Amino acid sequence: MIVTIRRKPWALAIIYTGVSLAVEAGLIIVGGLRVPHDNGVIAPIILTVPPTLAALISGYRRPKEFVILVILTSILTLSLTIVGGRLTGISTGLVEPIIVRTIAGFLAATIANRVAARTAKAE
Question: Is residue 4 part of a domain?
């Protein structure tokens, strides 16, 4: 049986980027937090809440797919942020988070879709 995954990685990437930036803006505006001074508070929230919300909104409901997607999105976001920060030397701004979170969401969704296809194929 041929199994195709119809979820679009770009859809998750755009949703994740939007949710993530909205949550971060809320923390900065409503919470009064400052980047990079309060990154110790902002980072854990950004690495847990937006990936979870984006996965739910995008339709990843199976527990294995959901967990893989959330963990991959968090790890890729953190890794790409560290690499981007080291390469550019910039720790604040809007362009870098948009690029990093879009790439992280796209890669995480692509990998999660492949894992889901393999799992469905094996069953």
Answer: no
Q: How far apart are CA 48 and CA 88, in angstroms?
A: 25
Whole-structure pTM value: 0.87
pLDDT tens-digit profile of 9-47? 999 999 999 999 999 999 999 999 988 889 899 999 999
Range of the domain at 76: 9-122
Beta-carbon contacts of 64 under 8 Å, excluding residues fewer than 6 positions away, are 115, 116, 119
Which residues have C-beta within 8 Å of that of residue 49, sequence separation ≥ 6? 23
* Angstrom distance (rounded) from CA 81 to CA 75: 10
